[in-house]
Amino acid sequence: MSHPLRFACTQCGKCCHDLRLPLSVDEAIIWLRDGGEVKLFCEAIPWPDEPAPDNLQARHKKGRSFPAQSGELPVRIVATLVASFDGPCPHLQADLRCGAYERRPRTCRIYPAEANPFIALNPAGKLCPPEAWGADKPVFLIGETLADAGLARTIAQSREWDVKDLGAKAQVCAALSISTAALANEGYAIHSPPGEKLLDALTAARVASRESAAGYAEPVEWGLVSNRSATRAVLGEIGARVVPEFSDISGISGISGAMEYLPFYAAD
Q: Can you give 224-243 as a three-state secondary structure string?
C-alpha cells in the first residue's frame, strides 16, 4: 500500500504568478467582465477513424474536443479559454490573499491536484515549496483517491464543463473566424481576440448552445500549423490544410485579432 501524500497550502503565492489558467465559458465571461485578458489556445487532434470503445484516453480527448475538418483530414479541435497574465494575478493582494476568492476559477480551486485523470500528481512538478508537502501536513491523496471529497467534486465539475462548453467554444471560433490550430502535442496556436468581441461572442454562444441539443456551429475548415518540416510534409501527404510556416512566434493579425504559434519543439 502506497504512503499517503500530504499537503497544505503555505500561501506562498507562487501559483498566482505568470500563469495561463484554463477557464470554462462562464468563468471566461466573469474574467473578461472583471477587466482581465482571455486567449484561445487551439490544438488539433487528427481523427481519421473512431478509436476502440475501450480506449479511455481517446474517449477523454473526444469528450473535450469538437469535430472539424482540415482539408481531407477529419480532426477534433481542443479550444481552451485561458486567462493569461504575466507577473502576479490581477486578483492577488499585497498580503498574497486572493481578492476574488469566492469567484476564483476551478483551476485555482483544484491546484495542486490534477484535473486530467491520466496525469498523476507529482509534487516535483508543482510550484508549491517543499514544506507544503511535509509529513506534518494533512493527508491530501491516498493512492489515487483525494482525501477531500469537496475537491473531488470540483474536479468532476471541471470535467463536466469541459464537455458542456464544447458547443459554445465551437460557435465562438466560428463567430470570430478562428480556424487555425497547432498539431496536438507539438504546440498551440494562440488567438487573442479583442476583449469586447470575445465577451460578446461568448455571451451569445453560451445562450445559443444551451438552447440547442448539440450546440455546434456549422463545420469550419481548420488550418494546421507546425514549425517542423517533417510534420508539415506528413500533413500535406494526408490531405490536411497546412498553414504556411511561421518564422517565429511573434504572430500574425487577422479578423480574429492577433495570433501566435507557441511550439513545444525547436524548428527544423
A: EECCCHHHHHHHHHCCCCEC
Place of cell 478562428: 178
Report pLDDT for 208. 82
Comparison of pLDDT for 181 and 255, the residue scoring more: 181
Q: Which long-range contacts (CB under 8 A, 24 or more apart) does 206-213 make?
A: 206/25, 206/26, 206/29, 206/168, 208/167, 208/168, 208/171, 209/165, 209/167, 209/168, 209/171, 212/167
Residue 268 forms part of a structural domain: no
- 11 within a domain of the structure (yes/no): yes
Q: Is the pLDDT of residue 36 over 80?
A: yes
pTM: 0.91
Query: According to the model, what pLDDT value does residue 91 have?
Result: 93
Residue burial 12-39, b: 16+ Cβ < 10 Å; e: rest: ebebbeebebbbbbebbbbbbeeebebb
The CA distance from 21 to 91, in Å, is: 13
Q: How many Å apart are CA 5 and CA 253, to the nearest integer?
A: 46
Please tell me the total count of domains within the chain: 1
79 found inside a domain: yes
**Taking residues 190-207, what's their average pLDDT?**
95
- What is the distance between the alpha carbons of residues 256 and 97, in angstroms, rounded to a whole number? 35
Where in the sequence is the domain holding 22, given as residue range(s)? 5-263
d(CA 241, CA 224): 6
Percent of the chain with pLDDT over 90: 83
Query: Which of 184, 206, 210, 190 shows the shortest CA–CA distance to 37?
Result: 190
